[in-house]
Design brief:
With 336 residues, the protein is of the alpha/beta class. It is built from twelve helices and twelve strands.
Length: 336
């Protein structure tokens, strides 16, 4: 049985979306058990009358909530009875708890996971790796996407190693194609970090490094993982998402601008629904924090029940594939 601690508060639609997502995940994954952290009375009320396997669900009372506007380090020190910290402490102190899922404060999660759960031996810094869809129907990961603004060459190579193992383990992609985010595809492009990273990544045993990638190629489907620092990765993710959302808004305005456009849109409504689902981040789960001793998944703050269920499934598959152990072994081999 794989046990995951689910933070039931902190999101825009918590606790309803978290609890509903938990029940969806339990229905899909028969060897999954969940510990729901948060206000025990409120969680029990939300579960009352629902059909689910009660033997696979526990509630850990944690009446406080860490807000996204709170200073992360202060919040994790002052709100030890928060739903997030209770999930983190369960992962830290209970060997039978395999990981945590939250849609709460990103900053608090990074601080708590790093300071309380701890890093895998040899890992310099944990890194976020979200997933985006590609034009060829596949997925692409970006590692790092915001956990580490300033990084070293060693950290960058570890991001590549950890991210590649994640893509392989969870998404079943053999020898994931790994690219380095840069301002040009030539080997000599970029700042000193990028220039030194190219030969280092090329020389890494077992890594399928395919060269530099320009930002415009992120969704092309030609890459499975893009490695970069957290600052550039965060800008890459948000600019891509923003551009897609603005194009959807313009398309909607254009459709409603003329009657003939409305008729055409009606006839193409199935295609538009498919495209909307393709571009909906909630269908791809959360951003995993690679490099921690336990599995950690951070969902979007506005996640609905389906998105929460997907995040839980990500954590489940990471543990099922022994990703933490595989990362530890790979980092240890690299140090030899």
């Amino acid at each position: 049985m794989i046990r995951i601690a689910l933070d039931c508060f902190g999101g825009d639609h918590s606790p309803e979306a978290n609890i509903d997502g938990a029940l969806l995940a339990l229905e899909k994954l028969p060897d999954l058990a969940l510990i729901l952290t948060g206000d025990e009375k409120l969680i029990s009320e939300k579960l009352a009358g629902r059909e689910y396997d009660k033997a696979r669900v526990e509630i850990a009372d944690a009446p406080e909530v860490i807000g996204c506007d709170e200073t992360p380090t202060m919040a994790i020190k002052q709100k030890k009875d928060s739903s997030l910290m209770r999930a983190v402490e369960l992962a830290r102190n209970d060997d039978t708890v395999d990981g945590i899922v939250t849609v709460g404060s990103t900053g608090a999660l990074i601080a708590a996971a790093t300071l309380r759960i701890g890093r895998i031996r040899g890992v310099k810094r944990p890194a976020f790796c979200p997933i985006l869809p590609t034009m060829k129907g596949g997925i692409v990961g970006v590692c790092d996407s915001g956990a580490n603004v300033d990084i070293s060459l060693e950290m960058l190579t570890q991001f590549a190693r950890m991210g590649s193992l994640y893509i392989e383990t969870v998404y079943g992609i053999e020898r994931p194609r790994v690219a380095l985010l840069n301002i040009g595809v030539e080997e000599t492009k970029g700042d000193e970090l990028r220039k030194s990273a190219y030969p280092a990544l090329s020389a890494m045993e077992g890594l399928n490094f395919v060269g530099n990638m320009e930002a415009r190629e992120l969704l092309s489907g030609d890459y499975d993982l893009v490695v970069t620092d957290g600052f550039a990765g965060n800008v890459l993710i948000k600019s891509t998402e923003g551009a897609c959302l603005e194009m959807l808004k313009k398309l909607k305005r254009d459709i409603y601008s003329r009657t003939i456009n409305k008729i055409g849109a009606f006839l193409m409504r199935r295609m538009f629904a498919e495209e909307k689902a393709f571009m909906d981040y909630r269908n791809y789960g959360g951003s995993v924090l690679l490099g921690c001793k336990k599995t950690v998944v951070k969902g979007h703050g506005s996640s609905n029940d389906a998105a929460v269920a997907k995040c839980i499934e990500q954590a489940y598959l990471m543990r099922k594939g022994n990703l933490t152990e595989r990362i530890g072994e790979a980092v240890e081999r690299a140090e030899e």
